[in-house]
Structures are given as C-alpha cells and as structure tokens.
Amino acid sequence: MLTDPDFGQHNSRTPPEELLIFAVLSRAILDLFGPVALASNKAEGKKSRYEALRFLTDHSGAWAKRRTELCDAIGFNGDDVRARVIRVLEGDTRALDVYEGRGSLNQVEKARELWECEKQARADAQTRRKVKPKRQGVRYMEARPKVMALLDRPRTVKELSDETGFSDGVVRTVLNKAIEKGTVEKQGAAYRVPDTPVAATAA
Q1: Which residue in 4, 77, 99, 155 is deepest, having the highest Cβ count within 10 Å?
Q2: Same domain, yes or no, for 119 and 170?
Q3: CA distance 23 to 82
Q4: What pLDDT is recorded for position 134?
Q5: Average pLDDT over the chain, rounded to whole?
Q6: What is d(CA 95, CA 107) in angstroms, rounded to the nearest whole number?
Q7: Nearest-angstrom CA–CA distance, 189 and 186
Q8: 27 lies in which domain range?
Q9: Which residues fall within 8 angstroms of residue 171, CB to CB, at 6 or more apart?
Q10: Host H or E run for residue 150
Q11: d(CA 88, CA 94)
Q12: Is residue 3 part of a domain?
C-alpha cells in the first residue's frame, strides 16, 4: 500500500477520456510533421496533413474552437499549443523536443512548405476582403451621343442598352436628362427625338 501514491484509489491514473484527447492531439502532430501512414493514398495523405495544419494553427473558426475545447479538457492552453507548432513551421528545430514521438516527425520540411502556401492563401484572402474592386462607371458625356444617335426612331431602354453596350441605368440617365431638356420624348415604353424646333436646335 505504501508504494501506491493514491492508497488504492488510483487517482493518479489518467482517465480514459483524457487519454483519448492526448491521442487525438498526438495524431494531429504526427499527421502534420510525420508520414501519413494511415492514409489510403497520396491524396488522402495530403488531405490529412492539411487538416492537421488547420487544426493546429487556425486562429479562429471551427478548427481553432475544437483545438481549444480539447486542450481545455486536459489542462492545456490551446494558444500555447498553436504557438509551439507555428514555431516549428517557422524554422525552430527544438520546439517539439518535448514530444515523445519526435523521432517519427521526419516530414517537417513538407509541413513547412504547406505552411508557406497556407500563409500566402490567407494573406491573399484578407487582401481580397479589404480591397473591393472599383466599378468602372460610364461618363454621361460619353454615353449621351451614342444613345441619342439611335433615337432616329422609337426605341426602348433595352434596345438602346443592347445596341450601345451601356447598362439600363446609364441609358435611363441619358434619356431622363434629354426629356428634361425637351430633346427626347417618351411614347409608351419607347423613346425618340421629337420633330420639333427644340430638338433640332439641341441636336
């Protein structure tokens, strides 16, 4: 009994659920830095390595949440685990010295290559979110003569848009301004230049 630190209660033994979590985390480390021996083919192996990378390094989202939950359950800090893994990916050769299975981690360079690709993809995605493409507007003075030149007979907005290549909105702007000036008149759904002295003068 004196050799048993828990006096028969065995509280020092790791609960099965914690052992399972340790196994999950260890598997992720091995999938990222070691050979993906359990994969059925090369594509499956790449997928396993990529998912391990996301699980261990994502700052937010579902992968990060799951990592945090598992680490919390065994008293680990999920952010510390992430930071240590990233140190290895960034070139630190000693950050995983505490890992018992470090002898199996013989694919560190592949993991680093994947990490560089993932960093670039994340940076590109962030840039796309920040920089919204500017809409190239059509100047009124550019659109007006092309629209007006087609009004020798009644035409609808759609017809004018199709023939000039301008959007319906641009065509309507030209037509509305022309109606205000009296140089265009509307006949039902169609528009035309009226046979009046005003139109002749404006032309």
Answers
A1: 155
A2: no
A3: 17
A4: 53
A5: 83
A6: 15
A7: 7
A8: 16-130
A9: 143, 147, 157, 160, 161, 164
A10: none
A11: 8
A12: no
